[in-house]
Amino acid sequence: MFLLHQFQNERAAQAFSDYLSAIGIKNNLHHDDFSYQLLIEQKEQQTQAEIELDLFLQHPNDPKYMSASWQTGEVSSENNYFAFADSNLVSNFIHHAGLVTHSIFAVCLVIYLLIASGVFQPIPSVLSFFSQQPFDYLQSWRFITPALLHFSALHIIFNLLWWWQLAGLVEKQQGKMHLLVLFLFSGIAANLAQYFLVSPYFGGLSGVVYGLVGYCWLFGKLNKSSQVMLPDAYFVFLLAWLVLGFVDLLPVNIANYAHLVGLLAGLLMAVLTSKLRLHV
């Protein structure tokens, strides 16, 4: 069995898989959190499969591919499809992540709704970073709680989507405690950097998100068989977003140093975790 192609679109992957089955090329479709992998079962069918793939990529809307799905029984009525999509979305949200991921997701969302409704003022508040030195260590929660504050819809949507995706992956594969350590380490490092290099007036989960980005990308590189990984394309995109923040080309205020230090903290955690795994 060998990998023929990785699709980003589920419907395209299924249509081509059905077409190969209809013409006698045995295949299997597998998916992870980022792509759908089409595997060919018999090596002797590789050349034919590659020819068919080239044709499909050139003309993906050719009716013969939809016809193949109808023949294999993979196409359902429109109403049934959307009903399945809705239930599958909820199921994916629940099962992709664990208690820690969902709890932090929910806390961030509730705090944002309180801020948006005017019930809660984020700065100053019991959740904002210390406003002066020396730090009052009796309020040590302030080192991490700014990560729970968000100030716009775009801000929280971006952060929570990436948090759910990457934190859920780490929690499911490596456990709750490992995710908590990564959350605290990258979050505190990012918050301290933003405080000392800019000001105490900031908030957001993006330092932690960049910690997860660095962690998942490098851990996947260092441990090729691990399911904790991030494709290069996503990593490059998020690096570009970070750079745009530093050159001030984005239409929103960005905690740039929190992003950068969070990323570095995640990379460091990936190295340390990989070394510990080798000695266990």
UniProtKB/TrEMBL annotation:
Where do the Peptidase S54 rhomboid domain residues begin and end?
A: 139-274
Q: Where are the transmembrane segments?
A: 104-123, 143-165, 177-196, 202-220, 232-251, 257-278
Look up keyword Protein transport and say if it applies. Answer: no
> Which coarse location class applies to the principal site listed for this UniProt protein?
membrane
- For whether the record's keyword set contains DNA repair, the answer is no
Q: Which family does it belong to?
A: Belongs to the peptidase S54 family.
Q: Which NCBIfam families match?
A: rhombo_GlpG
Name-wise, this protein is: Membrane serine peptidase
Instruction: Identify the species of origin.
Output: Psychromonas ingrahamii (strain DSM 17664 / CCUG 51855 / 37)
